[in-house]
Amino acid sequence: xxxxxxxxxxxxxxxxxxxxxxxxxxxxxxxxxxxxxxxxxxxxxxxxxxxxxxxxxxxxxxxxxxxxxxxxxxxxxxxxxxxxxxxxxxxxxxxxxxxxxxxxxxxxxxxxxxxxxxxxxxxxxxxxxxxxxxxxxxxxxxxxxxxxxxxxxxxxxxxxxxxxxxxxxxxxxxxxxxxxxxxxxxxxxxxxxxxxxxxxxxxxxxxxxxxxxxxxxxxxxxxxxxxxxxxxxxxxxxxxxxxxxxxxxxxxxxxxxxxxxxxxxxxxxxxxxxxxxxxxxxxxxxxxxxxxxxxxxxxx
Length: 300
Known about the structure:
Blueprint: H1 12-27, E1 40-45, H2 51-62, E2 66-70, H3 84-91, E3 97-102, H4 107-114, E4 119-124, H5 130-144, E5 151-155, H6 162-170, E6 177-181, H7 190-198, E7 202-206, E8 218-221, H8 232-238, H9 246-249, E9 257-259, H10 280-297
Parallel strand pairs: 1-2, 1-3, 3-4, 5-6, 5-8, 6-7, 8-9
């Protein structure tokens, strides 16, 4: 693929092929250590990141690529007034691929429109986060042994949660049944629901998980994103709406898996970490293998 801006840039065959490739890499990563030894990858992070940035950089190094870029936009010329487009024009003349995170929804498309090299969207505001969705799907397949016909509950900030947007669109290839659980003010965006309706994906919107918990195969928790709120009081009123702790975890069946894109705040208690259903740290680790597979597969 030329760019990866949205999970919808991949069809079912492409997505499953990348997941299979990531599985192969995880089994024997040493086989791929020189695959991109002639490439330079730029990681441009205009917004804070721990897992995504370090995962991409580790993936690049593990396949032999060299790195340039920044983790703090305050050190770039955007602080002098340089536009995103001008930054990308410069960087795309220096690197073979750009991995970019930006606080503005749609920024990745703007970057791709002027870039001479492939652009990977590492998160654009409240828009999408396609590589997170890919590693999530990889993790679901690894743990459930199938992607088909799963009952998936998305919980928390579904309005601003770009991981939810991407994963719900990506899993739409596999006939899921979705439960969107959130306060009304943080409901999943209309455009996501419209896309799901077009693909005839079953979903329900709820404010409580009590009744549906026993039938859930995948529980996908998200944090309420304080940085997306202009009103602190509004944030405080919803930040603890859903908490997975030892007591609430008992509502879910033994074969359910607990996922979270991280970072977490208070929505998952640390006491849940020891539960065998809690796989969110394994999920984060899987980002390395998936991103290695993706970097190797891009069309340079």
